[in-house]
Amino acid sequence: MELEPIGGRIRERLDVVNKGREIALPKARQVIRFCSVAIRAIHRERFDEARTGLDQAKAALVEAQRALKDCPEIYYAGFLQDAEKEYSEGRVTLALVTGEALPTPEELEIGFPPFLSGLGEAMGELRRHILDIIRKGKLTEGERFLTMMDDVYYFLISFDYPDALTPGLRRITDLARSVMEKTRGDLTTSMRQYELHDALARVENSFTARTD
After folding, report:
1. pLDDT for 125-170, tens place per residue?
2. Are residue 55 and residue 141 in the same domain, yes or no?
């Protein structure tokens, strides 16, 4: 049986794929780490630092994508898509918080499903931003960001496709809805408390004016 020529070709191909994986996997982990640092910087309003971190994430992502471009066997294994999703989340969060134009998947050079998943997961970061706004008493601004959450949620639920095409998107969309409703409740409670405080202050001022 002439198995050795067949085995040689298989080993040659697997060596190429394995080499690509060994390059791409640590780069994908770097992307996730850089994006995590960038998102933390966004919440601290260190936007230049966040952009630097996201640029570093982009450089690592490009290297990972390049290493796997000729390896379709593992290009869609999942770890590269996780990195693309984290990069999408970071760029989307930065755009929403700073008021910049929302980046497109083409501009980010990532797949459509990771872009959508990153957009959904950015809702958790937007909730954190809204809570920070509430603590500062900027309730009107909080309402503006809540409207953004509404827009994103209704955009995401319009993608009603099987999980094989948009992996994990349905779960992420459900979580986005839960986050949005909790945020709406927190913002509404804060507004009612502010209105009550304002009304009590007016009554107190009126009573003080009459007794003077």
Report:
1. 999 999 998 888 887 888 899 999 999 999 999 999 999 999 999 9
2. no
> What CATH number does the domain containing 168 carry?
1.20.58.2140
d(CA 81, CA 200): 53
User: Among 66, 87, 110, where does a domain finish?
Assistant: 110
- The CB density around residue 94, as the number of other CB atoms within 10 Å, is 22
**Predicted structure pTM score:** 0.87
Distance (Å, rounded) from C-alpha 81 to C-alpha 169? 13
pLDDT per position as a tens digit, 19-38: 999 999 999 999 999 999 99
Report how far residue 136's alpha carbon sits from residue 145's, in angstroms, rounded to the nearest whole number.
Answer: 14
- Note whether 191 and 131 are same-domain residues: yes
